[in-house]
Write a structure and sequence with these properties.
The protein is built from eight helices and eleven strands. It has helices at about 50-55, 80-90, 105-115, 125-135, 155-165, 185-200, 210-215, 240-250, and strands at about 5-20, 20-35, 40-45, 65-70, 75, 90-95, 170-175, 200-205, 220-225, 225-230, 235-240. The longest helix is centred in the C-terminal third of the chain and has 16 residues, at about 185-200.
């Protein structure tokens, strides 16, 4: 991998939760470097820290210690209002359960992030046009006035993808995007993610499905709140062998 500006740089990131008088370390000091345009999968057993890492990357939670740089900006200690701005303007979310408003059309579901963006000066007509184009881009141009209950799971996930893209984010975070779908619908969603990646989008996907994970450029395995290893182009690389990473073109 050619050296370039990291979109994500994590340095000794920790997250500790207090449960009564006990402390539980969900993340135990992670170092991670992800370049713009990468397609990454994160895997690991239950309790490995996958969800906690995803929440920190998505600015849904703040680390206890360490640094998280997103496109060069240290977002580790931003307040809630600043984190909300980052989430809205720089990150697109795709969830396993779609998270669509149930009695709202596909068009209005996709438009929703634009209403929370205070810097968005588009008129209502322009927002509708942009949302329509986003839905057409995922093959739902004829379903814009349909509500989620009138759609299949695959169609609902495509609405969620269009919504994730509407503010042109730097980063797409996909949490088990095929987890609720049958094999055919899941394959369609992965095809869309491949298309987005081919256009230069940076995608980080949490999945428990090794078949889905192999669609990505690199798989990062977590265990006990640490990066255990990663696989890139078929080469397994341990976290404690930086010289191997350098020779294999991995992360240093």
């Amino acid at each position: 991998m050619m050296a370039s500006q990291a979109l994500i740089e994590i340095q000794q990131l920790t997250k500790v939760y207090r449960m009564g008088e006990a402390e539980v370390a969900a993340l135990g000091g992670i170092d991670l470097h992800i370049e713009a345009g990468e397609f990454i999968a994160i895997m690991g057993p239950s309790g490995s820290g996958k969800s906690t890492l995803m929440n920190v990357l998505g600015c849904l939670d703040r680390p206890t210690a360490g640094r998280y740089y997103l496109n060069g900006e240290d977002v580790s200690a931003l307040d809630r209002r600043a984190l909300a701005r980052i989430r809205n303007q720089r990150i697109g979310f795709i969830f396993q359960s779609y998270n669509l408003l149930s009695r709202t059309t596909a068009l209005k579901n996709v438009m929703l992030p634009m209403f929370y963006d205070r810097n968005n000066r588009l008129s209502l007509r322009e927002r509708e046009r942009k949302a329509r184009e986003a839905l057409e881009g995922v093959g739902l141009g004829e379903r814009i006035v349909h509500e989620p209950q009138e759609m299949s799971g695959g169609e609902q996930q495509r609405v969620a993808i269009a919504r994730a893209l509407i503010n042109d984010p730097l980063l797409i975070l996909a949490d088990e995007p095929t987890g609720n779908l049958d094999t055919h619908s899941g394959a369609e969603i992965m095809q869309i993610l491949h298309q987005l990646h081919a256009r230069g989008r940076t995608i980080i996907m949490v999945t428990h499905d090794s078949t889905v994970a192999r669609h990505t450029q690199r798989i990062i395995y977590l265990r006990d709140g640490l990066v255990e290893r990663w696989v890139q182009n078929g080469h397994e690389m341990a976290q404690d062998h930086p010289q191997l990473l350098a020779t294999q073109g991995g992360i240093t």
